[in-house]
């Protein structure tokens, strides 16, 4: 039996293009601009030109942002139900025109009609349905939040319409307006979507679509009238955007590259795993950020499994993407083909075995055969770089710990797929993998109800689910923050030193690393003066080396992350109890440092804050989603890892506790720079920690110059997040800029102040969200 040709008709799609004279302007304020400065969009399967699109200028982006700004009150004024109705209409229209969209997407992108018809379109419609629901429920479910404002959204070419839906649906649901840029290679379905917006009754200016290359993306990123940037694309451009937005106050979410492991244990259903692998790496020609591009297979079954994989590869059908029986379509552009070919050539040059099934590539267009690479070292380019093509790199492992080690041996952390018939093994491996999504006995599953997004250099922020909605909202408490921090200038020495106790002056407050007091590596100390100018003590001047030691200690304390939430809560209560026992001492210290007339209030608030986060430690639970598949998706709030924290100068004890307590409550370990002006009460805390069963290395305290230490924290490769809240606008901008190196998560306060006594401003889920990252684990259930 053989396959005959089964082409999908392209008549309607071609007619739609003809109806637009194959030329498109920009969609701004619900109107089309005259096409200008045109660039071509071609069909990657045969190189034929499909249409011409307009390269937007800076002035066009300006117009789009202005339109979006004007539309904000209109869109928000419609209320949740009003927005839900429009979004529901969009979902219905997407379904009604599903085939036209699917064919147009296949023509423009080169992906098979089977995928656009059965995956991209249903998921895109589902996204609008699901988020119509969030719009409806917003005032109830997100009562403490408001829309961010004007959102700039930039997407790549691999899932043009689906990425549009992932971006636009949550933004609209939350009451934002958008300026959206599709990828230059694949803008056509966005043009068709613009027409649906008008039909669905989206008010003018709510959705604006500007086409063009990276310069248009850059203009959106740099526009001061944009309040948030949501980007999907390469890690390289993600880094540029992180740097460009540093210090601007723009909210940012980045969904970047991946090098996701596909792990097959010896007890797996091997045939099922082979099919999963097909969906994982040959789906969309491997041009998928979460493609299972690294096969890790247990040594005992390696040969048998690879033989099955090769046999399956022989049967993959590559050819016209409009043919309904094709498995593999065309690559988006010859540039991608060259990039993939260069990486595969590098594998050959390094002595790897490169295997490809006998497969005839069409003469025209951009194609690459399914490829299996074996014999690559873990450091080979093909084992580390995102190939973004139909290329699988296979390696073996012997034991589950080795599988985890190999899985995590990448700078990325987007997704992983785990195959075993042992539920205990699967659920043992899932938490050990550093990735935002783990599929058990499945691969490349997506749903609007389930968050998607990465750890590490795969970016931050989530798309889909409740956490995805939060990316498009701002907590109302943020608006209530005072305009300026009550920064107390560093107290200066009195003209005449106060008569002091010589023994007290001799006292040097040490730093705290790995549960031990530590002298600064630099062997420098700096004086700390009290409010009255008297010398209170000397503190160590921390340096790069001290931070390095502290980070090492924090990593060694990983047992804290594995400890139960109940245990962590107990330790926090115990810290509160021991602080209460020394309340007078701490109050006296605060008074001496700051001149605070009511220092007892700060100590009591600190004790209460410790109770507050102890209470949260075992209550910040995840969710169990029920996507429309045979499974459940468990969304777990995992610790971020090691967090560097720069504390505020006002409320030196309460500020310290308000930042450290949520971080450690959720299992993070911290390296903390206490208030530069008033560091002593934080340094005194070691006595409390030592008596409260806090394991060494969970909290490390390095005193010294906040700017210098923050710089070191932001550039340290083994720190996962940096928080800075000392009111330094420049310092916060620098943290954001430098964090781009390893794409750390940041939480900075900027120049504004924060009421550290207010639970609304210094507590709640918004703070806990900074201290955690959501991992979505897809588990077969009721299959
Ligand atoms: P890019 O990251 O370059 O492009 C993604 C989007 O960003 C596109 O709309 C692009 O515009 C736009 N863009 C480009 N430069 C800038 C900039 N300086 N500022 C703002 N926006 C910008 O990915 P590519 O499409 O070039 O693909 C290159 C590689 O990136 C791939 O081979 C793959 O490895 C990886 N990639 C990863 C994706 C993922 O989802 N993880 C998705 C796509 C690519 P335009 O393309 O129109 O010029």
Could you explain the architecture of this structure?
With 783 residues, this protein is α/β, with parallel strands linked by helices. Helices cover 42% and strands 18% of the residues. α9 links the parallel β10 and β11. α5 runs parallel beside α6 and α23 runs parallel beside α24. The radius of gyration is 28 Å and the shape is globular. The structure holds NADPH dihydro-nicotinamide-adenine-dinucleotide phosphate (NDP). NADPH dihydro-nicotinamide-adenine-dinucleotide phosphate (NDP) binds next to α8, α9 and α12.
Write a brief caption for the model.
With 783 residues, the protein is an alpha/beta fold. 42% of the residues lie in helices and 18% in strands. α9 packs antiparallel against α27 (729-739), α23 (599-617) runs parallel beside α24 and α26 (706-715) runs parallel beside α27.
List keywords for this structure.
binds NADPH dihydro-nicotinamide-adenine-dinucleotide phosphate, 29 helices, six-stranded mixed β-sheet, 783 residues, 33 strands, single chain, globular, alpha/beta
**Bound heterogens, unique:** NADPH dihydro-nicotinamide-adenine-dinucleotide phosphate
Q: With helices defined by DSSP (H or I, 4 residues minimum), what is the helix count?
A: 29
> What form results from the Cα inertia axes?
globular
Number of strands: 33
Biggest β-sheet: strands ordered side by side in the sheet: 14-15-16-13-12-17-18-33-27-26
> Quaternary status of these chains?
single chain
């Amino acid at each position: 039996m053989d396959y005959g040709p089964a082409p999908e008709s392209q008549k309607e799609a071609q007619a739609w293009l003809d109806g637009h004279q194959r030329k498109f302007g920009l969609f701004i304020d619900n109107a089309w601009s005259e096409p200008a400065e045109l660039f071509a969009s071609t069909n990657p399967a045969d190189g034929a030109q499909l249409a011409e699109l307009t390269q937007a200028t800076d002035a066009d982006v300006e117009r789009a942002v202005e339109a979006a700004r004007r539309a904000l009150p209109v869109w928000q004024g419609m209320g949740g139900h009003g927005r839900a109705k429009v979004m529901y209409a969009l979902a219905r229209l997407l379904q009604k025109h599903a085939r036209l969209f699917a064919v147009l997407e296949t023509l423009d992108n080169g992906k098979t009609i089977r995928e656009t018809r059965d995956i991209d379109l249903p998921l895109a419609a589902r996204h609008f349905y699901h988020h119509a629901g969030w719009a409806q429920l917003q005032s109830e479910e997100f009562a403490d939040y408001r829309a961010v404002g004007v959102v700039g959204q930039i997407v790549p070419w691999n899932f043009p319409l689906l990425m549009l839906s992932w971006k636009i649906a949550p933004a609209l649901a939350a009451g934002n307006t958008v300026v959206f840029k599709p990828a230059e290679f694949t803008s056509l379905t966005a043009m068709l979507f613009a027409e649906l917006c008008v039909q669905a009754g989206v008010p003018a200016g709510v959705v604006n679509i500007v086409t063009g290359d990276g310069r248009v993306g850059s203009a959106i990123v740099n526009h001061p009238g944009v309040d948030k940037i949501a980007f999907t694309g390469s890690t390289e451009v993600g880094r540029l955007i992180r740097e460009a937005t540093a210090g601007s106050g723009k909210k940012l979410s980045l969904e970047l590259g991946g090098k996701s492991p596909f792990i097959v244990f010896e007890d797996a259903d091997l045939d099922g795993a082979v099919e999963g692998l097909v969906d994982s790496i040959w789906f969309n020609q491997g041009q998928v950020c979460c493609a299972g591009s690294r096969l890790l297979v247990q040594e005992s079954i390696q040969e048998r499994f690879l033989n099955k994989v090769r046999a399956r590869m022989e049967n993959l059908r590559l050819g016209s993407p409009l043919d309904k029986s094709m498995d593999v379509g065309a690559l988006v552009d010859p540039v991608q083909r060259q990039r993939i070919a260069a990486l595969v050539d590098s594998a050959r040059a390094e002595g790897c075995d490169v295997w490809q099934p006998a497969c005839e590539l069409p003469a025209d267009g951009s194609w690459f055969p399914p490829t299996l690479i074996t014999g690559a070292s873990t450091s080979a380019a093909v084992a580390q770089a995102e190939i973004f093509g139909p290329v699988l790199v296979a390696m073996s492992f012997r034991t589950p710990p080795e599988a985890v080690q190999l899985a995590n041996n990448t700078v990325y952390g987007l997704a992983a797929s785990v195959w075993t018939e042992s539920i205990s093994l699967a659920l043992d491996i899932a938490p050990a993998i550093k990735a935002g999504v783990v599929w058990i006995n499945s691969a490349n599953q997506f749903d609007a109800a389930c968050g998607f997004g990465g750890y590490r250099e795969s970016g931050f922020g989530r798309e889909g689910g409740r956490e995805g909605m939060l990316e498009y909202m701002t907590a109302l408490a943020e608006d209530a923050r005072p305009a300026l921090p009550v920064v107390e200038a560093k107290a200066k020495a009195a003209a005449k030193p106060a008569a002091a106790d010589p023994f007290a002056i001799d006292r040097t407050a040490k730093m705290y690393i790995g549960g031990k007091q530590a002298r600064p590596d630099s062997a420098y100390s700096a004086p700390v003066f009290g409010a009255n100018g008297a010398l209170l003590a000397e503190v160590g001047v921390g340096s790069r080396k001290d931070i390095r030691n502290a980070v090492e200690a924090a990593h060694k304390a990983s047992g804290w992350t594995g400890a139960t939430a109940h245990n962590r809560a107990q330790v926090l209560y115990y810290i509160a109890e021991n602080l209460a026992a020394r309340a007078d001492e701490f109050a006296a210290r605060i008074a001496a440092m700051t001149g605070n007339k009511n220092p007892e209030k700060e100590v009591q608030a600190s004790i209460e804050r410790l109770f507050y986060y102890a209470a949260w430690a075992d209550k910040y639970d995840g969710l169990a989603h029920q996507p429309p598949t045979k499974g459940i998706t468990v969304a777990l709030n995992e610790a971020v890892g090691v967090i560097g924290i720069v504390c505020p100068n006002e409320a030196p004890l309460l500020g310290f506790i308000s930042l450290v307590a949520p971080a450690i409550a959720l299992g993070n370990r911290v390296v903390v720079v206490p208030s530069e002006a008033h560091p002593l009460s934080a340094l005194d805390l070691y006595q409390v920690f030592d008596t409260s069963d806090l394991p060494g290395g969970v909290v490390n305290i390095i005193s010294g110059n906040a700017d210098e230490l923050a710089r070191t924290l932001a550039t340290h490769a083994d720190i996962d997040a940096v928080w800075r809240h000392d009111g330094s606008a420049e310092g916060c901008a620098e943290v954001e800029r430098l964090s781009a190196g390893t794409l750390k998560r940041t939480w900075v306060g900027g120049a504004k102040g924060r009421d550290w006594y207010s639970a609304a401003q210094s507590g709640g889920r918004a703070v806990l969200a900074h201290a955690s990252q959501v991992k979505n684990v897809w588990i077969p259930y009721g299959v």
